Amino acid sequence: MRGVQHKSIIKSQIKEKTMNEDISPTPNRRDFLKTTAVVTGMTVAPGVLLYGVSQAHQVQQESVTSDVRWGMLIDTTQCTDECDACVNACNTEHGLTEQIRADIKPVWIRKVGLRDKQTGKEHSLPVMCQHCEHPPCVDVCPTGASFKRADGIVLVDRHICIGCRYCMMACPYKARSFVHKSLENQKHHTPRGKGTVESCTFCVYRIDNGKKPACVEACDKAGHKAMLFGDMNDPNSDISKKLKAISSTALRPDMRLNPGVRYQGL
Length: 266
Description:
two-stranded antiparallel sheet, Alpha-Beta Plaits, single chain, alpha+beta, 266 residues
């Protein structure tokens, strides 16, 4: 009876709010998801990370502008099957070392093998968050935890992530992971937490301090130099010059998301 009474109170409050407010008859998708989250009790679901919020939001408010569009060009002709330098560097940099089943282990960057059915030509390429201009993960997030900075980097604010995993379902690149276990010995620059979603950040704290992402440094050190990172809006940057000089492609161009990661040689 107590549960029924509680539901009646909620319904009454929603009805009263509807009568007192001017609510659009055609709410957008995000408004709908937010309403759904409140009614179904998702706001009290486990997953709120009780650490300090990443400084990425603060940096965005203070100095990040849309004059910059960070991006990455990956030359698949220089990326080899046997090399996992970028994957290992990412795992070490962000502390993705917990022992857990492979099917649920958090992965921010993974190597994918592609084979052309017509020619038989094979490619090995790293796939991570593509940092889309129009990120579907941001569009479906009911709390605003998934957000895109003005400079194009897509991030997850784990302080307000409720672990609903809508973003994981929306991402066409399967680039996001869910943290199933409590974590220890975390990296101070990459706060993580059980019950939250996470993905590649382009090592945003490095970028904000004038450095390259860890995967790019590792690829260079391995001698492949298959990953080129920089400002795609700067005509004088190496990545802009290279993109103008060669043919490149985005993964799933049919979705018109305009990813910040491009591939050469596919």
